[in-house]
Amino acid sequence: MGKKRVMVPAKDLDLSTVKYEHEVIKAPHLTGSMLKLFVRMVEAPVLGSLIMSFLKKQNKMVEMLQNTVIPEAPMFKPEFPPQDAEPSVVIVDEERKPEDRVELALKCLPHYDPASCWSGDSLPSFRYWKIRDYAYAYRSKLVTPSMVAEKIISIIEDCNYHKPPTPLLISFDAEDIRKQAAASTQRFEEGNPLSILDGIFMAIKDDIDCYPHPSKGATTWMHEVRSVEKDAVCVSRLRSCGVILVGKVNMHELGMGTTGNNPNYGTTRNPHALERYTGGSSSGPAAIVASGLCSAALGTDGGGSVRIPSSLCGVVGLKTTYGRTSMEGSICDAGTVEIIGPIASTVEDVILVYAAILGSSPEDRISLRPPPPCFPDLSSLENANTLGSLRLGKYTEWFNDVHSTDISDVCEDVLKLLSKSHGCETIEIVIPELHEMRTAHVVSIGSETQCSLNPDCEDGKGVKLTYDTRISMALFRSFTASDYVAAQCLRRRIMHHHMEIFKKVDVIVTPTTGMTAPKIPSSALKDGETDMQVTAYLMRFIIAGWL
């Protein structure tokens, strides 16, 4: 029997006693026949339980969940603690129409100067157009949505012949895209565009409903047990703004992975280096934006699934606060961790898409009672100078715990630039109990995933999942009810630590990931892989966002 550990109440924790511990995940890296054999072992009735019990003990999960007395009460759902009003922001009424919110967000952005992107009658490359570039081109009659649609359709169809294959989309209908583009083109001809997003091309991750496309979650079977009758709420809001939806993009199966590996439809490759992963699970959304085909995309994020691929592909991803966007119409709509968030090539474009999709569900508005959302007001130099008042919190030992010092060095250069150019102050902080935070996160998201998928797995669909997903499901099945409650007690405790930190700083700064895009092993393309060491580096800094 392990010795019982008693945690002091979070409010009494002496931060001077906190020592940073480098995270070491003890689990095998497997591909090919060894991966298949390991899956058979962990799914065996008795042997599987023994293996999972051993792995959890090796990684101190049993000690944390079963041998520890946690004094805090459980926090079963994220909460919105009281907060002071922020300077230089514009409060948004989420009851307003999406197109009205987008118009308000547009007024918060810096002045758009066409001369910075255009010269005479020449057109800039399609590859790097941003939302306001398209909007200017459409209104100046330099190009039409239908012209852009033909270019995009041609490139997508050519992807089928690339060597190596670059599978971006799981569901794609060229005629549907042409129909949407024609309607947008007509609105511009009549002088009645719906919003700045009218005619903007976006892609939707395959776990978010976009009618009439099926939602498979990048499995081979989800569409057989779950039909799509209408758009997800977020997608419907985009349509009302005139967005043209190109289809459903690839992802790590059911969102249960950080690389984007998918043997079912092919592994999406990083547009900047085809031999490397995009990151996951929103691999397709990040890749299609980074490739220049779409100005933006929607992904889902419960453990870095928007932020990780955005980082590895060099674009911008926003993990919205839980409850800010409605999850209705997504495969992962029943938990307390997942959100729908935008991916785009610039912060400005992320703000515009976020403006369109934001709005809590009626249930979340009642239970969470979130304060009104807001946009940063970047429209004037005076407001932009507010950046200088930000206090940046840096936990140096954590910040520097990366696979290569190239990452921390570059991020350190950014902090120096913010200090030199804007006068931002960097303050040293300590974030206690990072291991506990990681453990609570995996138990929370894993238990909720298991609960959601259990009926289908019991019905025989579990064996149709990819091998790495089956290993994850075997781990999730090993969690008990008491494990879940213990994780929620840790959740409240960790929330307390963060609330105390935010009394001293405005932002916690870290690298997004602990490593750059990993190379794709050739042995992982056919059957996938499990590599928890890579996962640990990719997830190192992102888990605080699940609270």
Automatic annotation (TrEMBL):
Family affiliation: Belongs to the amidase family.
GO molecular function: N-(long-chain-acyl)ethanolamine deacylase activity
SUPFAM superfamilies attached to this UniProt entry: Amidase signature (AS) enzymes
Gene Ontology CC terms: membrane
Protein name: Amidase domain-containing protein
Biological process per Gene Ontology, one example term: N-acylethanolamine metabolic process
Lineage of the species this protein comes from: Eukaryota, Viridiplantae, Streptophyta, Embryophyta, Tracheophyta
InterPro entries xref list: Amidase, Amidase_CS, Amidase_dom, AS_sf
The Amidase domain, residue ranges: 168-531
Highest taxon, organism lineage: Eukaryota
Residue ranges that the Swiss-Prot or TrEMBL entry lists as coiled coil: none
